[in-house]
Design goal:
Blueprint: E1 5-13, E2 16-21, E3 24-30, H1 32-42, E4 47-51, H2 56-72, E5 77-80, H3 86-95, E6 99-102, H4 104-108, H5 111-120, E7 125-134, E8 137-142, E9 147-152, H6 153-163, E10 167-172, H7 184-193, E11 198-201, H8 207-215, E12 221-224, H9 226-229, H10 235-244
Parallel strand pairs: 1-4, 1-12, 4-5, 5-6, 6-7, 7-10, 10-11, 11-12
Antiparallel strand pairs: 1-2, 2-3, 7-8, 8-9
Helix pairs in contact: 1-2
Length: about 250
Amino acid sequence: MLTKRIIPCLDIKNGRTVKGINFVNLRDAGDPVELGAAYSRAGADELVYLDITATIEERNTFAQLVTQIALNLSIPFTVGGGIRTDEDVARMLGAGADKISINSAAVRNPGILDIMARRFGSQCIVLAIDARFKENDWYVYLDGGRTPTEIKALEWAKEADSRGAGEILLTSMNHDGTKNGFADELTAMFSESLGIPVIASGGAGNMDHFKNIFEKGKADAALAASVFHFGEIKITDLKKYLYEQNIMVRYEN
C-alpha cells in the first residue's frame, strides 16, 4: 500500500502566497519560495503551487518563480494556473516542476489531456476539478470557481482518467476555506470509481479531518493551505498524529 501524502497548497498572486475563503477575500500568506523550503524541511510529501490569476503576461514571471522554487526544494511539486497547451507544460517542467495541474482548459478542450499524456507521461499530469454541490449532484466549475457548468464532476473525472490524467486534484468549493472538514463522501465516491489517485482539497481545519479523509474518504493525498500557512497545524505534528492513528504516512519516529 502506498503511503498517504500530505500536500500544502500555495496559491500565488503577483508572486506572493495568498489564501481566501470560498475562493475570495484573499490575504497575504508569505513568500512562496521561503514557504516551500520550510514545508520541505518540515516533512511535507509534495507541494502544489497555483497561479490563481494567471495571464499570458504573467506566465513568464511565474516560470521564473518556478525555477527559484525548484532550486530550494527537495520534494516533488506541482504547478498550475494558465496552463492550456502542451507547450505550457513543457515550459513549467523545463523550469523545474515535477507535475502540472490543468483545470478549465481541459474541460474546454478535453483532447489536450491525451496530447499531454502522450508527450510527457500521465505521471506528471494532474487534473484539477473544482466541484460544487447543487441540485443533488456535484458539478464542475471553471475559471477559479467563477463559471458554473452542467458537467457532472464524477463523469468528467472518469473521462479524464481514460484520456491519460495521472491524478485528480478534487476541491469541494462548498468546503473550501471553511475548516469544517473535507468532503469525505464525495472523495470516497471518486476514489472508488477511478483507477488513479485522488487528492482531496478543501475544508481542512484540524487533524481529525485528515484522519477522516484518509479513512472515510479513501483519499490518496490530502491538500490544505491556510491551516499550514498560518501555523494552525504543523506538518510534523500532523504526521505523528496520523502515524499513531495507524494511517500509513512517511514519518520518522
